[in-house]
Request: fold
Amino acid sequence: MSTHASHKKRSGLMDWLTTVDHKKIGILYLIAGGFFFIIGGLEAMFMRIQLFKPENDFVAAETFNQLLTMHGTTMIFFAAMPLIFAFMNAVVPLQIGARDVAFPFVNSLGFWLFFFGGVLLNLSWLLGGAPDAGWTAYAPLSTTSEGSGVDFYVLGLQISGAGTLIGGINFLVTIINMRAPGMTFMRMPLFTWTAFVTSGLILFAFPPLTIGLFMLMFERVFDANFFNPDNGGNILIWEHIFWIFGHPEVYILILPSFGAISEVVATFSRKRLFGYSAMVFATVLIGFLGFMVWVHHMFTVGLGPVANSIFAVATMAIAVPTGVKIFNWLFTMWGGRIVFSTAMLWAVGFIPTFVMGGVTGVMLAIPSADYQFHDSYFVVAHFHYVIVGGVILGLFAGLYYWYPRMFNRVLNETLGKIHFWTFFIGFHLTFFPQHFLGLMGMPRRVFTYLSGQDLDQLNFISTIGAFLMAIGTIVLFINVIISTSKKYAPSSDPWHGRTLEWAIPYPTPEYNFAQTPLVRGLDAFWIEKAAGNKGMTPAEPVGDIHMPNPSILPLIISAGLFVAAFGLIYDTMTVVVIGMAITFICMFLRSVIDDHGFHIHKEEVEEDLKGVKL
Amino acid sequence: MFAMLALLLMGCGDPTLSALMPQGEVADKQYSLMVLSLAIMIFVLLVVFVIYVFVIIKFRKRKGDDTIPEQVEGNHLLEILWTAIPILLLIILAVPTVMQTFDLSAKEKPKKGELALKVTGHQYWWEFEYPKEEIITSQELVLPVNTKVHVELSSADVIHSFWIPSLAGKTDTNPGDGSKNYMWIETGSKEQVYKGKCAELCGASHALMDFKVKVVSKDKYQAWVSSFKKASGKATGNAAEGQKIFQKNCLSCHAVGKEGGATGPNLTGFGDKERVAGVLEHDKDNVKKWIENPQKVKPGNNMPNVPLNDEEVDAVADYLLSLKLQ
Reply:
C-alpha cells in the first residue's frame, strides 16, 4: 500500500501556497479574513468620520456610496465568511476525531477561490472605482451604474461564492462520513453541529446567488434584459433572488457563532451544555425557517398584505428557537463555576447584545411598523447588533478560545480584556443611538444629513463609538503580534476542554490523531478525564497514516478565473479565453494525474508518540 | 408600562420628521404597534437580563473553589416553559400585526372628500400629480388637513422609497408599469410642513432627495389649487428679462403654468417653495448657485450646465423667485 508514497516536504511560502492541510487552510482563512476585516473596518471609519457632523465634506457623495457598498460586501463575504471557515477548518475535523476533511484538495481550492474573489473585488478601488449600488445591488441601480465597479462586484462574488459552495459541500461530507467510532450525531459537539447546519444552508442558499449574479453579469456584460422593465423584465426578480440567498446567509454567519459560544460557555462554566438536544433541534429549526422569511426584507416593495402577513408570522416564529438557545446558555452557566477568561468575556458580552439584536428583529417582523423602520438607521442598528454583536463577538470568543489550538500559543489575557472592553463599549456606543436616529427619520445609506433635524448629537456619539471599536481592534493586533514571539502554550489543554480538539498534544501533529479515538459520549474528552484517564482510548492500533499530497493546482485554477474575470470586465474575449484555458487545463491535469498521496509510517508515528506531553 | 414607554419615546427628534411624534391615522397606528412590540420586547429583555445578572454574579468561580459542578443535562419543565411562553407572546403580537397589515394596504378608489395622488420618483426629485385637479408639481406636496389621500407610486428611473416619517411609513417606487405600488395617508389635524425622505439608495444624491409636505387648512388648499391652475408665468422688470431667457433655455425640460416639458421638475409657484432643489435655503444666492452648477449641489443629477452669463443667471433667478401663487 505504501508503495505509492512519496513524502514531499515543502517549506516556507511554497508550503502555504500548496497546503491541503485543514489546519493550515484554517490559518490562511483567518489571516485573509482578518485582512479584509481591517479593510472593511477602515471603510466603516471613513463613513463614520463623514457622518460625525451634518453637511460634512470628508468624502464625496459618489465615494460614500462606494464605501457603503464595499463595507457591506467585504464584511459579509470576505471577513465574516472566511473567519467562519477558518474556525470550521481548524476545529471541525479535530472535534469529530478525523485526520482531515473529506476532500483536502477541494478545501484548498475553496480557499483560493475565495481569496482571488476578494482580491478582485478590492482591486476595483484602484481600477476606476468600487461598486456603488449597495451590497444588495438592487436593479436597476446596479445594472445602470456607470464604470466597472459593479462588474467587479459581480465577478468577485461569483468566484468567491463558488469557493464557499464547495467548502460547504466539503464540510457536509466530512461531518457525515468521517466521524470517529462512537461519535454519533447526537454526540457531536455543538460547534460541529452548527458547522454542519451552516454547510447545509450554504448548499441551498449559494446556488440562487450564483444564478442571480449570472443574470446580473449577462445584463451588464451582454445587455440582457432580466431586470429591465422597458423590455419586459422585472426589477423584483433580483430582489427575490438576492434575498432568497441573503436571508439564509445571515444564519450561515450566525450559527457557527452560536456554536462557538456554546463551546465557550460550557467550558468556562465547567458544565455540560444545558439542554443539548434542544440546542441541536433549535439549530436545525433556525436553519430550516431561515429559508422561509426572505420577504421580510421586502415588506415595502408592495407584495400585498397576504404575502407580508405570512412572512411576518414566519419571521416571528424564528424567535422561539433562538430564545431556547439563549435560555440554555443562561442555564448552562447556572450552577457552574464561571471563569471569566477573555474568551468567556466575549461570550458573556454576546448574550445580552445578541438578545437586543433579536428583539429588534421581532419588531422588524411587523410589516406596518417595518414601513417606518425599513431602510432607516433602525435597521442599520438592528443588523449590526446581530452581525457584530452576534457573529463577531462569537468569533472573537472563538478566537481567544481556539487560538492555542491553532497557533500553539495563547493570547495575552490582559490585552484581551482591554480589547473586549473597548470594542464592547465602543460597539454599543456606535449602534445603540442608531436605533433612535432611524426612528427620528434618518434613512440609511445617506452620505450626509442637513443640520436642524435633531440628528447631530446621536451621530456624533455614534462616531466616537466607532473610534473605540477601532482602538479595540488595534489592541487585538498588538496581542497577536506579541503572541508570535512567545514559546508554546503551557499546556495542550489550557481551558480544561471538554471536546476532542483538546485531547491532542502540542504542537498539533500533521495527522491530528496518532490513533483514531474511541468516543464514549457527549464531551468525549471530559468523560475520559472524569474517569481518570490521561487521554482518549484509541479505537485502532498504531499504523501507517495515509495523507494527501500538497498541490499548487488549486491556486492556479483560481488564478485562471481571476484572469478571465478581467477579460469580462474589460470586454476582451481573448483574456477570457486565456483565463478559462488556465483553469480548464489545471482541472484536466488534476483529473488525469494519479495522486495517491503518501504515508506517514508507523515508526514515525511511534517516534512522535514517545515525545508527547499532554 | 405602556404609558411610560410612550412617554419615553415622545419628544425624540424633530416634530416634523420623527416617527416617534406621529400625526394622522396611519402614522398613529404604526406607532401604536411599535409601542406594543417594544413593550413585549422590553419584558423579554428584563427577564433575560435579570437571570443573566444573577447568574454571572452568583455562579462566578470563587478563589480556591476547585470543585466540579453537577453536570446537569437539562430540565423538561423549564424547556417547555421557555418555548411556550415566547409562543404565547408572539401570538399576542401576531394578531394585531396581521390585522394592521391588511388595514393599511388599501387599494380602493377615493371616495368623496378623499384625494387621489400620483407620486413619481426621479433621480433626485419627486413629482406629484393630482389627477382629478390636473395639477403636476414637484418637491413640495400641498395637502388639506384631515383628509385621506390615496397614493399611487412609481418611478421614472431606479427604485426610490417614499417616506414621510411623521405621517406614514415608506413604500417603494418601482420602475415599470407592472410594479406600481399603492398606499394611503391621512393628513392629521395639524397645519404643518413635514419633511419627507427618499429611503432607498438611488444614486449619488440619494441623501439629498428631500421633499416637503405642507398640510394646510381645506380653504387654503382650495385656494392653492385654483391659483395653481391660473398660474401663467408672466413677469415684469428684470424678471421679465429672465422669463425670456428661461423660455429659450429651460422650457424644454421645465414647465411653468401650462407651458413646458416634463423631464425636469415643474416650477409653477417656485417662489413659494421652502427649499431650492429640496436642500438649500430658499434665497436668490442659492437659486443662482444651483443654476450655475447643479452638479455641485446634487452630484449625479440630470440637469446640464446651461451656458448662461452672470447677468442672465441673475435674471433667471429673479424670474423664478417671482413665480408666486396668490
Observations:
- Chain B touches chain A through 95 residues (CB under 8 Å).
